[in-house]
Amino acid sequence: MTDTSSSRHGPRLAVITGLSGAGRTTAAKVLEDLGYFVIDNLPPSLIGPVFELAAVPGSTVDKIALVVDVRGRQFFGDLRAEIDTLKRRDAAPTVLFLESSDDELVKRYEAARRVHPLSGRDRIIDGIARERALLADLRAEADLVIDTSDTNVHQLRERVVDAFGDDDAPGMVVNLVSFGFKNGTPRDADLMFDVRFLPNPHWVDELRPHTGLDEPVIDYVMGQPATGAFLDRLEALLDLMVPAFVAEGKRYLTIAIGCTGGKHRSVVLAERVAEFIRGLGVDVRVDHRDRLEE
Fold first, then answer.
1. How many CA atoms lie within 13 A of 236 on its CB side?
2. Which residue in 83, 269, 255, 288 sits closest to 173, CA to CA?
3. If we measure between CA atoms, which residue out of 24, 26, 28, 48 comes closest to residue 39?
């Protein structure tokens, strides 16, 4: 596994960006609580000079978080170039991208009676669309994408602490999410697998009250002939992809496994996949999003 911390030159650097109203301010406050020196609305062209000042001998700043967003307007296009420059100097920042659904962002803006920075005289939804288009490439290259559509401030804090709270944890972290398609797909998933082709324990009366963490359901799901074949192929794929992602320096990977309700099949298989990935020497965190939903 590649230890990105051993080759880092200077302080640890985080860049917080994403859609307006998606939680950047909350994330910045969490990083401040974790000991980061936080600078809000910094023009990207100043990232390099700020980093150099923090890296001089005798500096007491070992962690910096920069909030960069569309308020910078004409400067924002320079962000990717600055990040690429830092990567070439073995000082690559961790880029956290926050997003949310259109409906939720509109609700937040209307509740706060704020104007979207890119809406001008148009509707809020028009400003959101412009911002999504502007940030599309940056989102694709971000180290960690967090969708806050259904996330409260406490849950967002937990996600940020998980990602940035342990400075000494090298390599990649895999977030493995089980979910139910009836409740919507996780918007921040990098890889998604649909296991609704397997027989559903919901239709077995004695299994319905249980979840995929209970032995009767585990035995039922793992006893299906298609389950073993699916896991064989999926594990072969992950055996190829996960080490390759680690070698490329990817820090966070979100894998989602879904069934109808998110209570039985997806839970069983998420646990099995998590066990396999841990065997590859990679840190795994499991979230059974809909396990307790009816």
1. 6
2. 255
3. 28
Q: What is the pTM of this model?
A: 0.65
d(CA 106, CA 100): 10
Taking the C-alpha atoms of residue 75 and residue 70, their distance in angstroms, rounded to an integer, is 8
Tens digit of pLDDT at every position of the chain (294 positions): 334 343 445 788 898 989 989 999 899 999 988 889 999 887 777 888 888 888 888 888 888 998 887 765 555 567 777 877 877 776 778 889 999 999 999 998 888 878 888 887 888 899 899 888 888 888 888 889 999 998 888 888 888 888 887 655 456 889 999 999 999 999 889 999 999 999 999 999 999 999 999 999 999 999 999 999 999 999 999 999 999 988 877 778 999 999 999 999 999 999 999 999 999 999 899 999 998 875
Supply angle C-alpha 285, 98, 291, rounded to 5. Answer: 40
Beta strands in the chain (DSSP E): 12-18, 37-40, 63-67, 94-99, 144-147, 173-180, 191-194, 252-259, 283-288
> What is the fold, at CATH topology level, of the domain defined by 12-164?
Rossmann fold (3.40.50)
Amino acid in the structure at residue 19: L
Contact between 145 and 175 under an 8 Å Cβ cutoff? The reply is no
Question: DSSP secondary structure string, 7-69?
Answer: T--SSEEEEEEESTTSSHHHHHHHHHHTT-EEEES--GGGHHHHHHHHHSTT----EEEEE--
In the chain, where does the domain assigned CATH 3.40.50.300 lie? 12-164
φ, ψ of residue 128 in degrees (nearest 5): -65, -45
Using the 8-state DSSP alphabet, how is residue 119 labeled?
Answer: T
CA distance 183 to 288: 13
In the structure encoding, which two tokens stand for residue 130, read together? 């412009």
